[in-house]
Structure formats: C-alpha cells, structure tokens
Amino acid sequence: MNTQKWLKWSSFASMYGMLLILIMGALVTKTESGRGCGDDWPLCNGKFVPAYTIESIIEYSHRFVTGIVGMILLVTTILVFMYSRRKDAKWFVSLAMVFTILQAILGAIAVIWPQSSATLALHFGISLIAFALTLLLALVYTRYGTVFTGKKGTMTAGIQWGVWLIAIYCYVVVYLGAFVRHTESSGGCIGWPLCNGQVIPELSGATLIVFVHRLGAILLFVFIAWFFLAVRARMNSTDNTYQASKWALILVVLQILSGGFVTLSMGYDWYLLASMLHTILISCLFGIICYLCVLTLQAGKKTA
Questions:
Q1: In this structure, are residues 283 and 128 in contact, taking their beta carbons and an 8 Å threshold?
Q2: What pLDDT digit, counting tens, does each position of 144-184 carry?
Q3: pLDDT value, residue 72
Q4: Residues forming the active site
Q5: Distance CA 158, CA 194 (A)
Q6: How far apart are CA 76 and CA 251, in angstroms?
Q7: Nearest to residue 60, comparing CAs of 135, 18, 111?
Q8: How far apart are the C-alpha atoms of 131 and 23, rounded to whole Å?
Q9: Cis peptide before 42 (omega within 30 of 0)
Q10: Which burial class, exposed, middle or buried, applies to 302 when counting CB atoms under 10 A from its CB (0-12, 13-18, 19+)?
Q11: pLDDT value at position 303?
C-alpha cells in the first residue's frame, strides 16, 4: 500500500473514530453514566478494570475508545507531516489533535471536579469541532478535497459571509442541544411539532430551554435553505459548493425530523437509538458546514 493510501485510510479511521467518540459521549449522558467511575481518572473507581456495572462499563468504554482514537490520530498526524504536501491537511490534523487533547482534558476535569451543565455542553462542542476537522482531513484525500471549482465571481461576498454566519449559528444551536441534554430538559416539551400541545407554550424552566432549541433549529433550516437557493442560482450542480449546500439542506431536514423522533420516543425502548441518530446527524451537518467554510477560503484565494 503506497503512502497516499495510508494517508487516506488513517484519515478516515480518525474521522470514524472521532464520530464514535461523539456517539459514546452522548450515550454516557443519556444513560447518566458520567459518574460511573466516581471521581477517578484515568482509573475507574480506583481500578484499572472497573466493576461490572452498566454505568462504569459505559463510562470506561468511552475513555478507552477516546484513548485508542487519540493514538490513531497521532499516527495520522505523523503520516501527514512526513508524506503529505497539502498544507491544508497539516492544518486540519494539527488542529484536530489540539481539540482532541482539549476535549480529553475537559472530560477528565468534569470527572474530578463536577462541572455545571453549561460547561459540560461545551465539552460536546469541543468534541464536535475535533470531528469536523477530521472530516475535513478525510475529504482532502477524496475528489471533494480539490480546490474551488466555481467560476470567478460565482461565490459572492454575500454567500461567503452567509457560510460563516451559518457556521457560527449552527454551533450555537448545537450547544443549545447539548445544554438540553445535560440539564435533562428533554421532557420540557411533550409532543412534536407542538410543545405541550401549544404553538407557544409557557416559557419557563425545562420548557423554555427545549423551546428555544426547537426555534433555533427551525431558523437554522431557514438559513440553510436560503443559502442553498443562492448557491443553486449561481453554480453548476457538479460544483463542490453546490453539492455541499445540498447535503447541508438534506441533513438539517433529517436533523429536525430526528429531533421529533427523540421527543416521540421518550419512554420507549428506541429512545437511546433516536438520541444516537440525532447526534450522528448534527455531527455530519456541522462537518459539512465547516467544509463550506473551507471552500469560501479557497474561493477567496482564487478570486483575490
């Protein structure tokens, strides 16, 4: 296997591993297993092999997978710096390593010194950025890693600004979703799409938190739909920007529907499955939006 194939394989392994970390982190929160290992880190209740309780196994498995993925990412980093000529790949893998270390440190701090729900939600946000960076790294070694393919002037300043504003806003919505999870506010809105049978419910407590998140998700759909229409009016359907914006629109629709699935499945056996699906979709959506941000940077270089 030549070096380019090794780079591609290791990059994709890092990406899938990072996605697994996100899913397992959501599982830890949903099953309330965050204290499954007590206040110990990296040991679990003072042992290298934890006691066989559901909470300790879930929490310790999350730590174990994070360590394995960290080593895979380290190998990928070495390979990229040794054999890749792509500067963007070096940036992506370096930043991915930084954010992976940061999220591991935040995870350890959360175990040793219990944190507020707001801080725990930030932990998910850091992990999401690490995943997005590994996704960008993997895309470097596919046809989507080529330079911007649009004609000069097709990606206007308005479209470029729109991408960055959507990226920032999407992160805020993701943070709100993580905040809902860590404050255990999911039950604040019973039913979907209405909240407690009302278009605008009584805005207090858990209901307020969930309703704000739902409203944020709807506005995110509006912004992405606007962006897709703007791109479709100016770009060819084979362009990377067009394809990415199309997938962003598809994913935001699926994300909203999966949010409804999470709400409707509360109290049923498939609730955890619905929650994991919700996490996967938002991770992919944020990753695609970050890819659009990279395309704006490439467009700026080409048209400068």
A1: yes
A2: 876 544 554 467 888 889 999 999 999 999 999 888 887 87
A3: 95
A4: 59
A5: 34
A6: 28
A7: 111
A8: 11
A9: yes
A10: middle
A11: 45
